[in-house]
Structures are given as structure tokens and as C-alpha cells.
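1st attempt posting a full record on here, be nice pls
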Amino acid sequence: MNRLPVIQDEAEGAAETFKALGDPTRIKLLGQLRSRGACGPDTGLCVCDLTGTLGVGQSTISHHLALLRRAGLVAFAKRGQYSHFWIAPRARETILDLLEGVGL
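the predicted structure (as C-alpha cells):
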């Protein structure tokens, strides 16, 4: 009986990550970060670096990056007044673990 809350927590975490991956703009953002070499704090990209390539505004990009960050797929650091984002070190493993967890 103690296992049920853990299963519920795992399911909710998995659903949040799947939701983060379920939007074309967020998939494009991950692709942009990857293709532009944003893989760590020294190579992170500012929101302003991403707005022109996706055809959406800065606030929309920021919203999508926040969802990806909450799902553990991107990381960020503040530099002055700007936040720089990159693909989280364990993003690939997070996605693979989720797929394994649901039997795929």
C-alpha cells in the first residue's frame, strides 16, 4: 500500500515531462539548443538568441523554456539580467528512463 503514492508521484512527473515534449515549439527549442551547441553554462543561449529562429516572441520562448526546465530537460544560469539556457546534462537519460518506465 505504501507503493501507491510513489507510483502516483512518478506518474505525475512522467506526465509533466511528456507534456513538455508534446509541444512543437518546445521540440524546436530543444533542437535549437542542441544544434547551436548549448550543452553547458559556458555555451548556453539567451532567450533573445532564440526568438528570431522560431517566429514567436520573447515571452512565449521564456514560457516554453520554463516548462522544459521544470521537466528537467533544460538548465539555466543567470548572467547579469539575462538567463542562458542549455540542454540539461541528463535530458536524454530522463527521456529514456520515462520510456522504459512505461514499457516502451
